[in-house]
Fold this protein.
Amino acid sequence: ENIFDRSRMAPKTPIKNEPVDLSKQKGCTPERNPITPVKLVDRPQPDPWTPTANLKMLVSAASPDMRDREKKKELFRPIENSEQSDIPDSLQYDMVDDSTVDEFEKQRPSRKQKSLGLLCQKFLARYPSYPLSTEKTTISLDEVASVLGVERRRIYDIVNVLESLHLVSRVAKNQYCWHGRHDLSQTLKSLQEAGELQYGELMTFFQHKEQDLEYKFGERKKETIPDSQDRPLLDFSEQDCTSASANSRKDKSLRIMSQKFVMLFLVSKTKIVTLDIAAKILIEETQDTVDHSKFKTKVRRLYDIANVLTSLGLIKKVHVTEERGRKPAFKWIGPVEFPGKSGELRERSPTSDPLPGTQRGDCAPYQICATGKQRFTRHASFNGAQPCEGTRRKVSSEPNSPRQERQDEYCSKMINLAAVCRQKIEEDTRNPSITSPPSLLPVPGDSDFCVNPLPQAVFPVVQTDVPSLSLPNGISSQAPHPSMLAASKTENGKPSLLPNQPFLCFPSSPLLMLCSGLHENNLRETLSTTGDGGNRSAEAQAAVPPAVCQKRSSHKCASPSAPADDEEPAAKKQTMEQSDLPLSLVVPKKPFESPKAECNPGNGCTSAVHLEDYHLDLASPAAPEAANKESTKPLDSQEQEKQFQKKDPDEPSPGKEHISKENANQPFLPQYLYVQPTAGLSSFNFLFSANQAPGAISLAANQLPSLSVPCVVVPSAALASFPVVCSPTITSPLSPVPDGSFSAATSMNFSMSSLASTTPVFIGTTAVVTPKVSPTPSVDPQQPAHPSLHLSPVLARSCAAVKLDSPVCMGHPVTLLKLQQPSSTPLTPKSIRPACHEAFFKTPGSLGDPVAWKKSEGNQTRNASSVQRRLEISSTSPD
DNA sequence: CGATCCCGCCACATT
DNA sequence: AATGTGGCGGGATCG
């Protein structure tokens, strides 16, 4: 067969000369009626066959490698339309002939010669970038395949990507219509818009936040874009989907994936997208199914797409160095701004300029091009799409409906983000030493990584402002953002640092660290920097080496100010912390002893039980309320935080104090809890530090918002003592999702001590993190109970009891996050919640996870165990 | 050894 | 049923 093909290829000679011409010829001419699916095997070589040609062909067949190889190199750079590639071939042939057969084998064409990118170049070379409008160029897959000497399968890879950009459209079986790049800018524009809708929130949020002070991320988008639902843009992107039976269809995947991939670039400020992040984001599957295999597959596809895009000159490969090392990434080098019509588009980068010559604002080509099948449906379906909340999406109507996708996407985004974060975390955890754990911390080298990855990545992560923390790279750090700060500031009056914030979010790694209150002192540290009345103790703690800390922490807890600790310079602390953090991730820096053991078993048990109950509650009735609370509650959380801070600084709230004392009593409390992603739906990881240095945490706060990850941050330690904390964050502003189905992310804190092993993590429903979350000090520690969640009374008690019993200090506050799961099926808010809740509640460790979890990953058990394991390790590790 | 990604099996879709 | 499409992932290559 190959030979046969090759022979065909030979004919290409003529072609080579003028790719363009050929295309034209082929295309329009009546001769080949384009549409017919006819197999053209013949076609390809209409005339040119000369005997010689045959020989050449044969030769080439024999040693295609050689030919290709050399050719390839030359071609390589030229790319684009030039026919050059062909020419060389011809030359090559001659060459080949000589050595030919013998050699052919020995020189197998290196893989590169066969690369999709090269193939794509050849493919593109055959057609004019800007064909005359009048003629239509039709492309016969068979023909092309034969000419290019590849299997048809490969052509599909190329065409699918090109189709996603509307460079070609499918006319009929085996027939594609070549449009060229006339509409490329339009398409890109559409994608950009769509991308903003889909991913923009995240991106913009972060990005803007950094750059602009105000980041309401939701708002902007909305302003420009009426409703996510309405946007037509998507339509085109999704049309494909529609054609197939909706979601289920697998077909569209490559095309859609391609579009999404492009969207990421268009939405990304940096225009650089790392493969892994893209893969994670593009894995729409709900949940965290982060299967490694799945990820790998996704990456493979992305390479395919990237190769084509590279050939189109839209992106180029680059490397971003992140924490762990350099990661493969791609940079958008295509047009950034599009002459578009509406002002909607926001142009993101100044430099950009529309395609060089192309700007035809014609109507969207794609539609036109589209063969018939697809389109109609799409409109209908798409219009309605709404974000997650989707109350209405009638799921029922058709499982497939595209809109679902859209909505789901929204949700899935969050999820994906979470997943991404989670992975990072995981990675980090793996390499505790190396990794970023400290991301928060200003570790010189490492710190970067923390930040960096994200920024480059699709969404720039916001970095914490904290001065001390300031990232070395400055990458992320640039913007301290007010958002959080502001909030904090308002409350605290200290803008810059989030003194209050108890959480740390690692941009790069999607970890959330929670510091339990203990140490408020620590917070203080941050505060101190800010100027608050910092407590030194915090610093001291931070400063204190982990190992020491562990015990100390407990002590500290007991006595807020740890004498020795305080003294250390913040810098040190940071470093320490950093180092610690990493450890913490992997290994809790402070090894807490098995929490269970320490904690009163009874308590722990009870608490655990309660939790479960709690879930249940949430699942059913409570959930909604909880959500509401949260939504309403942000304040509370803030308050809590505030309290937290307050306490931190100096005086622990009474309750806490006593708790802290208790903690003190208890020797070991794990300062941090690492929650594995698996547990949750979402894949977030949380770290809770009981005693942690606040500073880190503070950072987190900033980051969080930036991340916009649907995570909820758990209030600080102070809260820790309290059973549940709700994260205030609400999607509200941005979220297209009105319902707030996700809106509220509830987080619960309870003393971990008993639970620690279990590390209860909950993912909140989509709760998008609102920037607002910023810690506001307001609430009393005691009150924390309000927990948005409905805790079953019992639970609450238990918690309370626990607190008392267990050292609050330890306080491993657990947070629950509700994640909305992007369930495949559209969920109505109502429906969603219950489900979510259920799912949410698994604690990896303690709770055995039920099947549900599993679906997300089979690992859960593993996770749980791992968590525990980590904990244990930590305990040991600490010295 | 990780990054790339070619290759082609095979399921599903379309004729 | 034949043929078109294209998801998918093993495993070969590259760097």
Summary: The two ends of chain A are 68 Å apart (CA to CA). The beta strands of chain A are 137-140, 168-172, 175-178, 272-274, 315-321, 326-332, 503-505, 511-515, 672-675, 685-689. Residues 601-632 of chain A form the longest helix (32 residues). Residues 1-105, 204-249, 341-413, 421-879 of chain A have pLDDT under 50 and may be disordered.
